[in-house]
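Issue: copy button drops trailing tokens. Both records pasted manually instead:
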Amino acid sequence: MSTAFLFPGQGSQYVGMGGAWYRASHEARTLYEQADARLGYPLSAKCLDGPAADLNRTEYTQPAIFLTSLAMWAAAQATLPAPVYVAGHSLGEFAALVVAGVLTFDAALQVVAERGQLMARAGEHAPGGMAVLLGASVEVASALCAAATESAGEPLVVANDNCPGQVVISGASAALEAAAEQSRALGIRRFRRLPISVAPHSPLMARSQAEFAELLQTIAIHPPQIPVVMNATAAPVETPEAIREALLKQLTSPVRWRESLLWMHARGVEHFIEIGPKNVLTGLVQRAVGKDVVAEALDDRSPEVA
């Protein structure tokens, strides 16, 4: 049975995440300590102890989820099957790139931490957010975004094509408010704002792209040892320059998650393991691919039996 590893993105954070793995695994503790030393502040304490107000701030959320995911992977690695593909949802792409040997842990941590700061500053300049639409196709979500953009005069776009019936939109606060009012008229079953203070994968992130491009040029990117299915392409890319391009594009382009899952499944993947806090991606696998695959979340296991 072919296996793929999946790494979650922003929105999966919770106070105490990774705690059981931290206590059970020397490998996990080593990564937490390494991250604290590298960043110069106690990121491990924000993961394990909160407060939630800090953990939900983009500049802390992103490195915290990245760290927790890789600590869990390091703790469980010896017991896991070898993956034929890895993929990460938005922020999770950086953890996938570490596991694939494309980035070192230190380099990826630096990029993730600075990416979070860049996005937070973009959010201060142009306040925005995200909302999940349940019972909406990509086509209906696109129509809603177009209508809200026109009425509010500010951008709103499809950000994540997660699975059939679940689409995430992202953009300016005023446009999100307009979309909330207009969603029922388009037959959308539920409109729910997400606990995020910025608008990833939208035009509001464009002001961060130049600085992020400069940052990506400062780090070593190696050819992948495991194919990484990238958000921007819904397929693997192989060269360091193509990986840089896909990471840069990801700031303002949609996460093609449903397509990524279907691409892996079409090439024989029947076992998906979510590595990181919560189990959001596990549910998306089952809805996007179907019941003929095994989908499980490492956070649902006990570290002692991982």
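Record 2 (pasted manually too):
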Amino acid sequence: MKPTKMNDRFQKFCHDLTIFFGDLLSLCNRQVVHDTFVGHWRNIRRDNYRQVPLLLAMALHLGVLLFSIAAPFIMTAKNQRIPEVYTVKLYTVQEAAPPPLTVPKIVKITTPAQKKAVAPKPVKRDAVSLSPIRQRLAKERQKKMAEKRRQDLQRREMEQLELNLLKEQAEQAAIAAEKTLAAVKKEAVAKIADLYKTADLVSRESSKAAVDVTRTGPSNGEIDQRKLEALDRYRARITEHISPHWQLPELQEWDENLRAVLVMQVKRDGTVTNSYFEKRSKNLRFNQYVKKAIDSAQPLPPFPIDFHEKSEEIAVTFSPGGLL
């Protein structure tokens, strides 16, 4: 029975220790402490019987604190001065006169008067002037300030030179990009003009052969040829339509070898139902600008009259110089 009681007491003691340390850890939590104090304060404010003892305890503690502070000043005694001691002779004792004695003659030996020691006069030393030191420090300070200004001026000049150099490089790059863009535009316009000329010639030849076709009926080869010609004209028209929307930032240098091929599923009225990259470029921003150009160019021109398909896949090749 005794070991069992000891075990129960030890377990209870461990449990109490756990609760005690848990309460101590809860004191580290600012929110728990705040909630505890706020709860006690609210309970005291609601209960009038607790307010009076609390106020009395606070007043008692405050009085004890004030008394402990003021007690040393009140209880210190003033330093008492000991009065000075004077010796007073109340009477003098007269001694009896001794019998006369023969006093030998005293020969006074005169000695030369000793000279009084004369203290040496203090040597006046000139006061050390601090003006040369101040002047030297002022000159050194001025030199440091002048050197700092010179360094700041050199740094600003270098920054201005770098800015001017960057500005010149940007202007040169912009001029070169404008020249390249103008050349590409000229080349594109020439290609489009050639396509239009070819289309006119084909249309003239087709009109000349219309009589023969109506008599004999077009063959499959002639129908495919006309379809390809109409598709080529439509591709040229799409290229001309998208070119104004294809713009790249001029501040960034673009690799002329970048190419991106975008395939669009186009309906007869020019609506783009789907688009995907058949070939992506290595530059992600370049691909984003390709999608942006297609989105801003919608809707596309409708199919020509001689192109009877309901929908068609159109592939467009993008490059930094323009559409190919």
